[in-house]
């Protein structure tokens, strides 16, 4: 128990120091791992199990929110392979360039080993990238979806490599995994009957670990990939977003064990530190390559830069690849410590990149040629509000009813904003004027061209925090019209009014008063009918 307490205190202290230095806490957790190992503190029993569980839940959560169609986008799969090829070439060039400096690892490496190390350094950290997106609440933004798509494609490439490098193919039982499709149907039916939050969390954990991790691992595939796949299969369920939120805190705590475990891989020598530091030279080139590729794919400089900086780091998955490569004789085992340090340092560099992203985006917009709207992807073009007088943000049941009331009864020209691509496409097919976008993303409001007659904005998103954030961005944009919003509780209503909402509808209170009014009206009609009959 004393060892557990020591780990907790050191991790907490290092995380606080990182926070005070305006760095992500995960940088502090990595430093804590290196410090504990350097001090000769024994490894905490079960730490690696907790770390693996954290990564598994991370990928399961990604699967719950992943739109598989996004992987078929050229700005995802083509960008992944183009950047992979560039990273290998530039990586080999860097390693060959520093070979004369006397690093034995590099001097003794042949071209094949250099290519392997460059391949390992081409991967981006899923854990770091998702942490960045979670902190910004940008998972559903265009750049967030593209970044997640690239990460998934990289995982697929790495799984193929690991399968080949192990020298044997997966078990023939791998074809039995097709039974996950009817199994997912059954899981949906079971999930429909679960109403308890505790059972929901246990259900999600069991699905991620058993038909996810364990089955894939049993047939010779990467278990984390299985967690991602079953997450995708369950992602269409109505309760999937709630499950992802429910598992969020558990995943965050378990990932602390993951970062600590990276730091515990070994105490690097001065030579290891120097070589790991030199490997950071690759990061600016990789960032520039991502920006160029994404811009070529029709993304604005801002979108391309944010996606690039989210992906510009080295991957913890690369450490798994190098361990397997060392075990099969493809690379020296000494690379494990060097790459662990390089990965840790890359998180620090990535944190700096992301901290200065707004300034770099402004610089790119000034220095690079102006991008013509017709050359941009439709999802990244400026949004013209046109003649719309009312904007409805969020097209769930409340939003749809509001839209129809404003359009059909009040005679307004209405534009709707919906972040769910499937729902947006369905509404467009029904004749609604809908733009697919995330109204909680500042990027969306920067793309908006002010409509001359915009008078009213109605915020009907289901989460109170989203409505507050959208309202703050509206005010920042300089909107002076009327803002209305929905709330579920009195304190939410009060907060929205305090933030500047002109009208707030308490859904529960409204439903109660409407039901009472209808009950009285029906009762009066029945009494009149009975009186007339008598």
TrEMBL record:
Membrane association type: Multi-pass membrane protein
The keyword Zinc-finger is assigned to this record: no
Domain RCK N-terminal: 387-505
Compartment list: Membrane
Residues annotated as transmembrane: 47-64, 76-99, 111-130, 142-164, 170-187, 199-216, 228-248, 253-271, 277-299, 311-331, 337-357
InterPro entries registered for this protein in UniProt: Cation/H_exchanger_TM, Na+/solute_symporter_sf, NAD(P)-bd_dom_sf, RCK_N
Transport as UniProt keyword: yes
Entry keywords, A to Z: Membrane, Transmembrane, Transmembrane helix, Transport
Record-linked PROSITE patterns: RCK_N (PS51201)
Domain of life where this protein originates: Bacteria
Protein family according to the UniProt entry: Belongs to the monovalent cation:proton antiporter 2 (CPA2) transporter (TC 2.A.37) family.
Protein name: Potassium transporter Kef
Source species: Nocardioides luteus
Organism taxonomic ancestry: Bacteria, Bacillati, Actinomycetota, Actinomycetes, Propionibacteriales
